[in-house]
Amino acid sequence: MQTIFVQFKCRPGRAYAVADGLVEAIEEVSEVYSTSGHYDLIAKFYLPDERDIGHFVTERLQTLDGVADTFTTVAFKAFGRG
Asked: In this structure, is residue 20 part of a structural domain?
């Protein structure tokens, strides 16, 4: 399983609609948060190992209505208690 985080810059007034669209339309999404700073949202996705991250981001995420820009981070290892 691949874990990626994608930050979204949304068109003005569209951040909540983009967040709703991610939750409704993208089954690979785990969590979506609104954020401050250069990007409006950050979302965590789990993709199967054979899934091409580039195609997923450009074809499924960047094409959502209201998305102006994205920034993708690939996660390698999760650290935590337990």
From this structure: yes
Kind and range of the H or E run holding 31: strand 29-34
- Between the CA of residue 51 and those of 57, 60, 75, what are the distances in Å? 11, 12, 15
**Containing domain of residue 47, as a range?**
2-75
The reported pTM is: 0.94
Q: Are 53 and 74 in contact (CB under 8 A)?
A: yes
Q: Which residues contact 7 (CB under 8 A, 6 or more apart)?
A: 35, 38, 39, 41, 42, 70, 71, 72, 73
pLDDT in tens, 35-54: 999 999 999 999 999 999 99
CATH number at 36 reads 3.30.70.920
The count of structural domains within the chain is 1
